[in-house]
Write a structure and sequence with these properties.
Blueprint: E1 2-6, H1 8-11, H2 16-26, E2 33-34, E3 38-41, E4 46-53, E5 57-65, E6 77-85, E7 91-96, H3 97-116, E8 122-127, H4 131-144, E9 148-154, H5 158-168, E10 175-178, H6 182-187, E11 191-194, E12 214-218, H7 231-236, E13 237-242, H8 247-250, H9 252-260, E14 268-270, H10 271-279, E15 289-293, H11 298-312, E16 318-320
Parallel strand pairs: 1-7, 8-9, 8-11, 9-10, 11-12, 12-15, 13-14, 13-15
Antiparallel strand pairs: 1-16, 2-4, 3-4, 4-5, 5-6, 6-7
Helix pairs in contact: 2-3, 2-11, 3-4, 3-10, 3-11
């Protein structure tokens, strides 16, 4: 058995547009299926196993999310994706799952931003400055391009925020700066990306009461009880997008808002529904706040892994097992 090995440094060099297009087109297909996610509470973290398949390939991903790893000098999330042929079950590729997860998550967010971001010049704010923020910066730059006029970055570690702002100044927007606090960042932004490992809300929804139309993208998710955005943010949202119906149970923000009556099902749209409506001549989101809560789906892993493997299989190393 011979496997193509695709490490993170190779993945980071790929054209992110390949993954964005694969994720968007993938959600329009009717031939892909995801299996129920397995989640194990490991005490100090969570371990997940996700799988999805289509007529060509099967993707299986292991991911461990351990927030305390940062204090040990280790990555918060560790992951690997195995891609196999559906027809034979033969594995064909082993892909760095942490980087693939970051880029497929960012690709899904970019598809949402393509259709839900407010019009005109945009200030984009990042809450969190890790790999996910960097992947989102690349994917958002791909779909929004010169519309991004300014970038703000907040991180609990000010030096990390300043470092990312320095990287994005000029490459993503003419202006980029570290923000003093997350509430100020949200108040000044048209599009907010919350990409953290926080179990508690990272900004106050009260700052959204200024009448400004915004897109809030929240992709921080540790387990079914973590809440990266608060109840007020969900309550105020005119439209709530989710990657799949599974988010209605797996996202604490969405589940609890539905249970309390702060959110009704009519305001929720899946990513597949969003793309179909947008391509069918949809006039766009209602005014006010649009929220995208991404908890991840194995479908995104499958679409991204297929695109990466097909793009890189002739140029990467292989191992024989």
């Amino acid at each position: 058995m011979e496997l193509a090995v695709i490490p993170g440094d190779v993945l980071r060099g790929i054209d992110v547009g390949i993954i964005v297009r694969s994720v968007e087109e993938g959600f329009l297909r009717g031939d892909a299926r995801a299996e129920p996610r397995i989640i194990a509470d490991m005490g100090r973290g969570s371990a997940l196993v996700m799988a999805a398949r289509d007529p060509s390939y099967l993707a299986v991903k292991y991911i461990g999310v351990y927030p305390g790893n940062a204090a040990l000098g280790l990555p918060t999330a560790n992951s690997a994706v195995l891609l196999a042929e559906s027809s034979t079950g033969m594995p064909v590729a082993l892909i760095d799952g942490s980087t693939l997860t970051a880029y497929r998550t960012a690709a899904a967010s970019a598809v949402v931003a393509k259709y839900l971001a407010p019009g005109g010049p945009l200030t984009v704010g990042f809450v969190g400055s890790g790999l996910q923020a960097r992947a989102h910066a690349a994917a958002l730059r791909h779909v929004l391009g010169p519309r991004i006029s300014r970038v703000l970055v907040y991180d609990v570690a000010r030096d990390r925020a300043e470092a990312l702002a320095g990287e994005l100044r000029g490459s993503m927007a003419p202006e980029a700066a570290a923000a003093a606090d997350p509430d100020a960042l949200v108040a000044s932004s048209d599009l907010v990306v919350a990409a953290t490992t926080s179990r508690d809300p990272v900004f106050r929804g009260d700052v959204l009461h200024d009448g400004r139309s915004r897109l809030i993208i929240s992709i921080g998710w540790l387990d079914a009880n973590s809440e990266e955005v608060d109840r007020e943010t969900v309550r105020m949202s005119s439209l709530v997008a989710v990657d799949t119906e599974a988010a209605l149970a797996e996202s604490a923000e969405i589940r609890r808002a539905l249970e309390s009556g702060d959110l009704d099902r009519g305001r929720i749209i899946t990513l597949a529904e969003l793309v179909r409506r947008a391509r069918g001549g949809w006039s766009g989101p209602p005014p006010g706040i649009s929220l995208y809560k991404g908890v991840g789906t194995a479908l995104e892993d499958l679409f991204a892994a297929e695109a990466v493997y097909i793009s890189l299989r002739g140029s990467v190393g292989r191992v024989r097992l």
